[in-house]
Design goal:
Layout: E1 4-7, H1 17-32, E2 36-39, H2 51-63, H3 87-99, E3 103-106, H4 110-122, H5 131-134, H6 138-146, E4 152-155, E5 162-167, E6 171-176, E7 184-186, H7 194-204, E8 209-213, H8 220-230, E9 236-240, H9 260-265, H10 270-278, H11 293-299, H12 314-328, H13 331-341, H14 345-355, H15 365-369, H16 391-406, H17 413-427, H18 431-443, H19 451-458, H20 460-473, H21 479-490
Parallel strand pairs: 1-2, 8-9
Antiparallel strand pairs: 3-4, 4-7, 5-6
This protein binds glutamic acid.
Length: 492
């Protein structure tokens, strides 16, 4: 048997460090067994998936040196590797389950579903809707079918009993079937849900081992049952511990930069980031902190993964990156790193339009464009002294902007403008007045290149990190204040 693993990202935003972490472990596991590593794009969420996000995911994994053997861009014998191109396959498999009595068409409306949930709640039952709850009288089912009402396809699930799932790291996991709902497999638009598409594809792509984040544990019983329904062997499951912030909360972009784009823009070396990700819950047999991808592959053993939530600590990563920069690179290597980081045509061509209309000599460029090549600007509270706003209002403005920016899915100047305009209205400020403190937070000075273009160029996580940094410089937000601000923000 050839070991085959995969990473199956959904292209719905910035490339997440968590995706790279899971990809790295899948790759090492495959290579250690002389196997293959596949990349599949799970873009069944047609509203949130974008080709731009897909491209960023491919670029950043490749930047980190995590190469795949089969995927949407390199092809392979099990394609297509994008779920949106495999619609017929899922419909066919859903039909197969319906015919075997393992799935059913559900014509329930969303109002009815709410009522059913209320009933279960009132009866003190778990909220998971079961096939029996959802069943309609035969005549009613027929009527809705005849009238062509919208329906979804759901899977049959047992009412009670215990589902036992084996996990490579966690051993036996037991889940009460009573808590498992009659999962939707095909949505009313005919698109599959994650569960159906994932199981069908893992089987058709001959995946033997599924290493994925622990947030998917609850899906395992449904997946196991689907494998049984289809009569297929299930790949072995391995749920990896989630990455955490230093305060042990789940790593989230609210607190820390989570986009690989950020680490790239900040000037981390790919080999340092990959090395650091390899330290997430795993260690080399001799516990050394610095190792290459090849060394990790050669020494890999999944049983050395420890389940205590690995902490993704920016300070430690920064330290490790410094070691690589200072000790690993000779002059030539350093120069190359610098060029591929920012001193290259691709990045400079975005910046030149921002500076060329504002300079008299070429030597004006570097000071004017410094914020495109730096991390956090050197600002203090005094940097904001010309802004005619109370400190508290300033903090509020910056915090609201951070929150608005968190939900921007396509990081383009136009989408950023929409958010800025909405907040100008809320604060009853002219755009110029609103942008004055933002300008300082992003560029570190009160006169520089266009701040809107600047934010679009430096990217989402870098922008938010600088805004958060400015908030800290201005004294930060206490827990109490944060609560008040969140309340006001929700009412926007
Ligand atoms: N599309 C899922 C994700 O975005 C894949 C989960 C899995 O590996 O099964 O993480």
């Amino acid at each position: 048997m050839t070991v085959r693993t995969r990473i199956a990202p959904s292209p719905t935003g910035d490339p997440h460090v968590g995706t790279a972490y899971i990809a790295l472990f899948n790759l090492c596991f495959a290579r250690q067994h002389g196997g293959e590593f596949i990349l599949r794009i799970e873009d069944t969420d047609r509203v949130r998936s974008t080709t731009e996000s897909e491209q960023m995911i491919l670029d950043s994994l490749r930047w980190l040196g995590l190469e795949w053997d089969e995927g949407p861009d390199v092809g392979g014998p099990h394609g297509p590797y994008r779920q949106s191109e495999r619609g017929d396959i899922y419909a066919e498999h859903a039909q197969r389950l319906i015919e075997a009595g393992h799935a059913f068409k559900c014509y329930r409306t969303s109002e009815e579903l709410d009522e059913l949930r209320e009933e279960r709640k009132a009866a003190g039952q778990h909220l998971a809707l079961k096939p029996a709850d959802l069943a309609l009288e035969p005549q009613e089912q027929e009527r809705r079918e005849r009238e062509g009402m919208p329906y979804v396809v759901r899977m049959m699930v047992p009412d009670s009993g215990t589902c036992v799932v084996e996990d490579m790291l966690r051993g036996t996991i037991e889940v009460d079937w009573g808590q498992v709902d009659a999962q939707i497999l095909l949505k009313s638009d005919g698109m599959p849900t994650y569960h159906l598409a994932n199981v069908v594809d893992d089987h058709l792509m001959s995946i033997t081992h599924v290493l994925r984040g622990e947030e998917w544990i609850n899906s395992a019983p449904k997946h196991q049952l689907l494998y049984e329904y289809f009569g297929w062997d299930m790949p072995r499951l391995c749920h990896m511990p989630l990455l955490r912030n230093p305060d042990k909360s789940k790593l989230s972009k609210r607190k820390n930069p989570t986009s690989i784009n950020y680490y790239r823009r900040m000037g981390f070396l790919p080999q340092a980031v990959t090395n650091y990700l390899g330290r997430m819950g795993w260690s080399m047999p001799d516990e050394r902190e610095k190792f290459s991808l090849e060394e990790m592959m050669a020494n890999f053993d999944i049983q050395r993964v420890s389940l205590g939530g690995p902490v993704f600590d920016l300070d430690k990563l920064t330290w490790l990156n410094g070691v690589y920069l200072r000790e690993d690179l000779d002059d030539r290597g350093f120069l190359q790193a610098l060029m591929s980081w920012a001193f290259n045509e691709e990045y400079l061509k975005d910046i030149l339009p921002q500076v060329r209309t504002r300079v008299d000599t070429l030597s004006d460029v570097a000071p004017l464009a410094a914020h495109f090549f730096s991390g956090m600007p050197a600002i203090t509270e005094a940097s904001f002294s010309d802004v005619k706003m109370e400190r508290e209002d300033l903090v509020k403005l910056l915090q609201f902007l951070v929150w608005r920016f968190e939900s921007v899915s396509s990081w383009k100047k136009d989408s950023l403008l929409v958010e800025v305009k909405a907040l100008c209205e809320h604060f009853d400020l002219k755009m110029k007045a609103f942008l004055a403190p933002v300008f300082i937070a992003i560029t570190g000075s009160s006169s520089s290149t266009s701040v809107m273009d600047g934010m679009a160029i430096i990217g989402s996580d870098m922008t938010r990190a600088r805004l958060r940094h400015a908030i800290e410089v201005l004294g930060g937000v206490s827990k109490k204040q944060a609560k008040r601000l969140e309340k006001e923000y929700r009412e926007l």
